[in-house]
Design brief:
The structure holds two protein chains of two kinds. In chain A, helix 1 crosses helix 2. Chain A has two helices and four strands. Chain A is an alpha+beta fold. Chain B is an alpha+beta fold. Among the domains of chain B are: 97 residues, Calcium-transporting ATPase, cytoplasmic transduction domain A; 142 residues, HAD superfamily/HAD-like (Rossmann fold, 3-Layer(aba) Sandwich); 130 residues, Calcium-transporting ATPase, cytoplasmic domain N. Chain B has 22 helices and 22 strands. In chain B, helix 1 runs antiparallel to helix 4 and helix 12 packs across helix 13. The longest helix of chain B is centred in the last third of the chain and has 36 residues. The radius of gyration of chain B is 35 Å and the shape is elongated. About 2% of the residues of chain B have low confidence. Classes of the chains: A alpha+beta, B alpha+beta. Chains A and B meet through helix 1 of A and helix 2, helix 4 and helix 9 of B.
Amino acid sequence: MKKTYGVEVDCANCAAKMEEAVKATKGVKDASLSFMTLKLKVEFDEGADVDAVMKEAYKNCKKVEDDCEIFL
Amino acid sequence: MTKKQKNVLYRIIIAAVLVAGLAVADHMLDLPKLPKLLIYLVPYFVIGYDILKKAGKGILNKQVFDENFLMAVATVGAMCLGEFQEGVAVMLFYQIGELFQSCAVGRSRKNIAALMDIRPDYANVMVDGQLKKVDPDEVEIGAEIVVNPGEKVPIDGVIVEGSTTLNTSALTGESVPREAACGDEIISGCINMTAVIKVRTTKEFGDSTVSKILDLVENSSMKKSRSENFITRFAKYYTPAVCYSALALAALPPVFRMLMGMDACFGDWVIRALTFLVISCPCALVISIPLSFFGGIGCASTNGILVKGSNYLEALADTKYIVFDKTGTLTKGVFEVTGSYPANGFTKEQLLYYAAYAESGSSHPISVSLKQAFMASAGDKASSDAEDAEGKMNLEHVENIEEIAGHGVQAVVDKKQVAAGNARLMKRLGLEIENTHEGGTVVHVAVDTVYAGCITISDVVKPTSEAAMKALKKSGIKQTVMLTGDAKKTADQVAAQIGIDVVKSELLPADKVSEVEKLLEAKSEKEKLAFVGDGINDAPVLSRADIGIAMGALGSDAAIEAADIVLMDDDPAKISLAMKISLRTLKIVKQNIIFALAVKAVCLVLGALGIANMWLAIFADVGVMVIAVLNATRALKIRP
């Protein structure tokens, strides 16, 4: 199961950190954030509750980079 | 500028005016230290409150070593040492740099988006006798849409009314317009140039070519190159390392000097450490590399080359071996009459005439090419025979068509008994043949049991194939290999004609995979192997090679799926162009890495020695970043 989200982030380094944070979230199999297109592609684990996982991922992102937004 | 950027701009202006005013006032009044600190704190907070907040949050979230932290420590440190102006100025310039960077990135993002501006905004649908503009997403399969001149074709479909000229340059990079008439399939993303056409859609918008291409290009930056991953890993170790070095720089020398009985000069060393911190920010590297790759990919797509990821663009530069499929890749994949050899007093025209009419009932590629050759020659002469001149065959000429499996056909043409087929057929009729013609398929013709001669039909080499091979050799390809299921004789002839190094012929589809695997094993790890195919039944090989390149994939979903690089048109010359773009992009990436690291290294040493001041430090951070970003955007403008 794969989904793409729009994101807002100001610097490339922060984008890399957000990507790490999303990857580390439970229920996320893999994630990739492109700073150029401002798009976050998330691959979820089998049977994961997408909404709940993304809320958690968002929280994790906020921790590493306060000035960011994921359009869920 | 976005709202956020405007906000920062206002803050920069306010802070700059305040600092300038304060500097003058300060000069005239000569205030004591504490009130001076208090008044300088005003512009400091105006310009830097968000940085301080982020730094604080970072510490709370255990993300200490980021650039906000660096800036906060550097400026707070400067304020504590009584360097008020410097403290505010560093923050001010940092924000200016960030704003500049944000604008530069935003602009290149827009540039790239403009290059890829093939997304149609609407489709014209006939509702109650009136044209209505609707979202292409809402158009169902089988609906009829109207495309006016100047508009983009929004959805793949078939023309049901009208004929026009289409500009496909946004898709294929090919500037010669394409003619399309009623009954032709057209793909979305083309621009209708001359006349109104009515199109019946065959796909939904989401499955149409234009959506697929956009999706592919937008996702390409998700697959990160080795250089990008290297920088991300590098930054992870680099920032903490720099912070500890700065700490050591601030603490160790003064302690050492105290032990030696000298004046500690604490303030001096702290300033050096802070300068060191400002210089060290890795952003120039982190931003410019993905930007270069994205530019390179954008540039490739305007030339009709779709690259599915930065990693593939990177790998292309290391490609040393290229394996080609023959049919459809180096050759047109269409059979054409390449020679006719009449015998026993027949003319070339007669030979073709009898062969084409005898074969007129069949839809076999050989028969089709005979018919096409006949119609072309008839059209050329604009001959006395009216039906032929119209480019249509008059089937009244022919009767009693009889296919003889494995041999050919027999038919009565103009009351004459005609046989057309292979050598076995002639033997069966008891006729002597001279079989000396090489390459391709040979069709022998007999008329009323007299041998009339033979026609050779073969797959034709693409006009650009030979030049493409030469260009590839020039761009550093060590070996070109051609794999084919065709007979050895035909394969060798084609290879010699276009200059292929190694030929493997008479292969079954499965053999192609094992041949590629053999080559993969033989080469060194660093050298890459690319396979070029037309996407029809070579998907396994495409995915097995280091880089799979599918050709002429416009509209072929399977090929777009299996390949790493998709050439939108049939031109093999695009491969060397893709390599050129790849090499140039990597060159820009290397320039940026070396430039940024070198400037930073020099400035770091100068900073540690106390030669570099804050102003140089700001250049080393922001200036380098801006230059790197500007250099990266050059990748967009690589010209063939």
